[in-house]
Amino acid sequence: MNAPVALVTGSARRIGAQIVRTLHQHGMRVIIHYRGSQEEAESLAAELNQLRPGSAGLLQADLDQPAAVRQLASDALACFGQLDLLVNNASSFYPTPIEQANDSDWEKLIHSNLRAPFILSQQLAPALREQQGCIINIVDVYAEKPLQTHTLYCMAKAGLAMMTKSLARELGPEIRVNGVSPGPILWPEAGQMNQQAIQDATALKRSGEPDDIANTVYWLATAAPFITGQILAVDGGRSLALQGS
Predict the structure, then answer these.
(1) Which among 1, 43, 117, 176 could bridge 88 via Cys, Cβ 3.0 to 4.6 Å?
(2) Do 115 and 72 form a contact (C-beta atoms < 8 A)?
């Protein structure tokens, strides 16, 4: 009953679901957050609770709505009565060419990628402080070097990177705050035309797996007590090519 508790946003599918599975496999209780992927979320929760009854909770919230984010924080604490780890994984991603970007794009990309992680960190800091817990933000290699026609997304992730460092100073010593910056792991579901070129630009000449991110999150959360304010690139060396471009 005293197993650590983790809230992972956007964890019904893809990388978020693998993070949840990995944390659960290592004995944590998990809270699965989803926005629209109800069927996948319920299936994942059922799978984990079958393995260990009462070990997985399920919460729905639209992270574009600040009031819903605050309610998510409250509901997360009510699930198991404590919180040891917050993983801000949920993210919106799509191009916003300068001629087409509008107010709705600002709301969708800034709220989910930046404002929601801040609100959750703010609301859950007291509970995390009680547990000497940590926050892990899923950033992006494009937080440092921009992706063509994705200005709003890159701005939001750059803000998340700075938030990671700033909160590490503000919330220490009780709470550690770090980031994981994925490179080519899972391609966007809408497709990406230059997949081979991106893989060729990595030092390892290949894409990674969701396990690469999930295992890094687990390591930062449980085996890196003297690391805070850092953003670890898990990108097969993709950022090396970006730095040289």
Answers:
(1) 117
(2) no
Sign (positive or negative) of CA dihedral 40, 41, 44, 50: negative
Residues noted as catalytic? 153
Q: Exposure of 83 by Cβ count < 10 A (0-12 exposed, 13-18 middle, 19+ buried)?
A: buried
Under CATH, domain 5-244 is a member of which superfamily? NAD(P)-binding Rossmann-like Domain (3.40.50.720)
List, in order, residues 6 or more apart from 24 with CB less than 8 Å away. 30, 48, 51, 52, 55, 56
Q: Which amino acid is at 234?
A: V
Inter-residue contact 9 to 120 (CB < 8 Å): yes
pLDDT of 117 reads: 98
**Looking at the whole model, is its pTM more than 0.90?**
yes
Q: With contact defined as beta carbons under 8 Å apart, do 143 and 160 qualify? A: yes
Which phi and psi angles does 24 have, rounded to 5°? Answer: -65, -40
Of all residues in the chain, the percent with pLDDT exceeding 70 is 88
d(CA 191, CA 174): 41
Whether cis (ω within 30° of 0) applies to the bond prior to 173 is: yes
- Indicate whether 204 pLDDT > 70: no
- 122-153 pLDDT tens trace: 999 999 999 999 999 999 988 988 889 999 99
Pairing of strands 134-138, 29-34: unpaired
Where do the structural domains in the chain lie, given as residue ranges?
5-244
Task: Write the DSSP assignment of 15-28 as a string of letters.
Answer: HHHHHHHHHHHTT-
Helix (H) or strand (E) holding 26: none
